[in-house]
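Please decode residue identities from the backbone states below.
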């Protein structure tokens, strides 16, 4: 790849360098979205397990929800309980606020 110091406006390689940068930025955004979704899913799983232990309930799958954030829409898997309920209202409020 050509160093940024040697590229001048109108240089035919400028388009190639900029497209490469956009690909990298897009990959970085995808990686961040995937990482954020994984962290939030793990937090919800831990919270649901704690709710099960406190209430003596058991889990029965997940509800798919989408959370819109400044970095994009995150696909989340909210745990379901056989009895009682679990919904991470506080977690969603914090994510939306930031």
């Amino acid at each position: 790849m050509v160093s940024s110091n040697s590229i001048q406006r109108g240089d035919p390689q400028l388009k190639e360098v900029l497209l490469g940068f956009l690909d990298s930025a897009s990959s970085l955004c995808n990686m961040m979205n995937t990482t954020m979704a994984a962290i939030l899913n793990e937090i919800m799983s831990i919270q649901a397990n704690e709710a099960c232990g406190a209430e003596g309930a058991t889990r029965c799958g997940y509800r798919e929800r989408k959370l819109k954030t400044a970095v994009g829409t995150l696909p989340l898997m909210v745990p379901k309980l056989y009895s009682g309920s679990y919904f991470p209202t506080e977690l969603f409020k914090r994510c939306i606020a930031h």
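Observation: The first strand starts at residue 59 and ends at 69.
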